[in-house]
Amino acid sequence: MKSISENSTLHFKKENLYRFSLVSGSMAAIERAIANLDTMAVFQVTSQPNGEFERPDCYIVQAVDNPDQTPTIETGNGIESIRYTLFKVQGDVSFELDRKKCYEFFTAWTVPENAHLLQEFFEVSEPIRQSYGRPAPVIRAQFGPVEAVREDGRYFSPSMGGMVEWDDRDDMFQLIGHPKFAESAAPLFAKAVSRIEMVIGQLM
User: Fold this and answer.
1) Which domain of life is it from (predicted)?
2) Are strands 138-145 and 79-88 parallel, antiparallel or unpaired?
3) Using 50, 70 and 90 to split pLDDT, how confident is the model at 149?
4) CATH 3.30.70.100 given to domain 9-203
5) Model-level pTM?
6) Domain residues of the chain, as ranges?
7) How far apart are CA 31 and CA 171, in angstroms?
8) pLDDT digits (tens, 9 = 90+) for 57-116
C-alpha cells in the first residue's frame, strides 16, 4: 500500500476508472489485505449517516484499467464483507488530502423524472452550508456511473457519487439538523434521490 504521507494528493483523470471498495473486518486483516494492492487512498470509517449496507470499517480508492484483472480484496481471513462500485469523472480532478479532515464518500440512486431537482437542492443548500455555524463542507470530486457495470453480489451501480471534505465528522449532523436545511433543502433531496449510501472516514 502506498503511504499517504508520501502522496497526499488524489488525482482523478477522465480516462481512468475508479473502484471504491467498502470493506468490513478487523483493521489488522484489512491492513494485511491491502498491503500488496496499488491504492490511491484508504479511509477508516468513523460514521455511516445513511445506508442500507452493513457499516464498513474502511473504504478504499483504486484506479483501475480493467476491473476484472485488477487485484482486489476477497472475503475470509478476517475480512467479513466487501462491496465495490466503479466510477469515472467527466474532467480531471485533483485535491490535497488532510489527515485532520474527514472525507465523506457517497453514492446515490436518482429518481429519473426528478433528477433535475438535485441542482435546485445544491443551489438552495449552498447558503445554508456557508452559514450553519461550522466550516462549510467542500465537494472535492463528483463521479458518474460506468455503464458496463451491473449490480450483483459484489458490485453495486448507483447513478452518481462524490467525495466531500468536512472539518469534523459531526459537522454533517449539525448541517442536516439545521432548521433551514430541514425545511427547504432536505425535501428537494428526498424527491430527487431514491437511495443513498454514505460513509465518513479519515485517512489511515
Assistant:
1) Bacteria
2) antiparallel
3) low
4) yes
5) 0.91
6) 9-203
7) 28
8) 999 999 998 877 777 888 888 999 999 999 999 999 999 999 999 999 999 999 999 989
Cell of 167: 472539518
DSSP string, 59-99: EEEEEES-TTTS----SBTTEEEEEEEEEE-SS-EEEE--T
The full length of the chain comes to: 204
Q: What are phi and psi of 61, to 5 degrees?
A: -115, 125
Cell of 132: 450553519
Q: Can you tell me whether residue 193 is helix, strand or coil?
A: strand
Q: Which residue has the cell 433543502?
A: 185
Query: What digits encode the pLDDT tens for the residues 169-195?
Result: 899 999 999 999 999 999 999 999 999
Q: Residue 169: how many CA atoms within 13 Å on its side-chain side?
A: 16
